[in-house]
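Page 47, continued from p. 46.
Same chain as before, 146 aa.
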Amino acid sequence: MSLIKFNSPKNGHTLAPMFNDLFESFLSDSPFSDRMIARVPAVNISENENAYAIELAAPGLNKENFKIQLDKNLLTISVEQKSENNQDHKQYNKREFSYSSFVRSFALPETADDSNIDAEYTDGILKIAVQKKEEAKTIARQIEIR
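Result:
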């Protein structure tokens, strides 16, 4: 077996333009493209002395689309959005509007108070506040040096 070296052209294209466009199109429409990966909403998780906060970016939904469940210490957020079949007689060359469903699960720490969880959905952000147990809250105090 011999090693074959390819010299890249000065314009940066390694394949003929026709093949390059074909492969770029194939890769951008594959399950590994950013568009497909982005179907699971981004999440921010933060903590302060009293609670944990989960913020999930899911614009274009209604609060009725969300289902939040707690099973032991596993908090699961799911959305099932049925696509409406409109008879608008449009002939699409490409259709990408179909945000249908997702599931995100989070293991809550033992310091979380599972009986004190609140959720609200405003401006495309689902905000979930999980309060901490009283014994888990940090108490600030002065330590005396001997």
